[in-house]
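Data card: per-record layout.
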Amino acid sequence: MEMFQEDTLSSATSSPASSLYSPSPHVHGSLVHQLSHDQQSVRLVGLLYQCAAEVAAGAFGRANLYLEQITQLASLDAPHTLHRLAAVFADALARKLLNLVPGLSRALLSTASSADAHLVPAARRHLFDMLPFMKLAYLTTNHAILEAMEGEKFVHVVDLSGPAANAVQWIALFHAFRGRRGGAPHLRITAVHDSKEFLANMAAVLAKEAEAFDIPFQFTAVEARLDELDTDALRHSLRVRSGEALAISVVAQLHRLLAADDANVARRQPLTPLQIIARSSPSSFGEMLERELNTRLQLSPDAFSVLSTLSPQSPVLAAAQQHRPAARLATFLPAVTALSPKIMVVTEPEANHNAAAFQERFDEALNYYASLFDCLERASSPSSSASAAAERARVERLVLGEEIRGVVAGEGAERKERHERLAQWARRMEGAGMEAVGLSYGGMMEARKLLQSCGWGGYEVAHDPRGEAFFFCWHRKPLYSVSAWRPAASRHGGRLISS
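The structure for this 499-residue chain is written out next.
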């Protein structure tokens, strides 16, 4: 069993005097490898936290020292899960440092990310096969839609899940609609995705299945990313028509609308990284450094990549946050509310990866992705074939690894992985004029039945504290949430909308 639960991660940093994780420039590589597996794991966790602290402080030399020690133990090909996780986080921390030099970082990141782009769709399919979270999301979403559409003859479902979309979700909905009292409705599905090939394949698969189920069906393709939709013309973009009951499904994508274009702030407030660091320093040396090096180097402004490394109490960070532009979500959610959907079902990672302070994001991400790596390890039995191990490695590197890089290394509009907890999503939805639709006990029982039938031990489906949404958990740790929403009754003259 791998050392992956939060108590293991926290225990590695509970004794600062411990020589196992307190990094030293004099620790020789051969001595490190003489440590037991458990000792190496504890040391790795400590090194990661220490390195993150130095990155947050902008201490290149010290951060480099810790990265060198991490790479003595960590590897993407290591047999132990924590060592592979550490390799991905070390990569993200190194890229975070490079982001302080914008031209260099963009050149390297673009080259690295494009090489394996064609492998990502297959890696996402492997993730779907190995873990139950997306299957649970599709099942509970469909159950909520089915209940909300009771008695409706014309139903329009909008799929905003983009890369997380899968035709199997809607095939299952066909089956559910066909078995309902009164028969299936006339069903129209609009899918938003940036791949024309994906949309064409989905259209063909669903048309064939709808014919087999004898369901009146129409498919509408919208070739775009979610963040490219025109919120001022959302009704037109999504082909919403009067006379149809509208349902909206969005799986693991809504958080991407939280990314704000911080580059606009940098242009309005053109501080160089050296200026920002110097202005946050109380010393006269900092002021001298700003004047001298700003004159000599004239670095390109990339203000928020440096701002994110500052303490939450920094007056520089506080001042900059006041001028941060609004994210697209602020206009998107009210536009969705104006469409008057009977139900909108939202699935999101249950994590706080949108904090302004870098250290807070890092700590949360390390614990969260440790759990997901643990899930993948459990899904790969010791007797798994070499091809299965290779598939898992691609998932860790191309899907989860890319998310980790987004959380840890990304800034501004490029930081798309801005996961937030359900409580924060509830505030955002209610602020946009939505109210919660409680997910039914029947939906929970269906989800639990799926886990049981597939033999997924260690997973569970639990209610949130308000008893309205579901958490999908690994050993009682919530990793995903699913919640349902509709326009608040007050927006409809006090008439309660039936679900």
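Known properties of this structure: Residues 21 and 46 are 5 Å apart (CA to CA). The two ends are 44 Å apart (CA to CA).

See the next section for split statistics.
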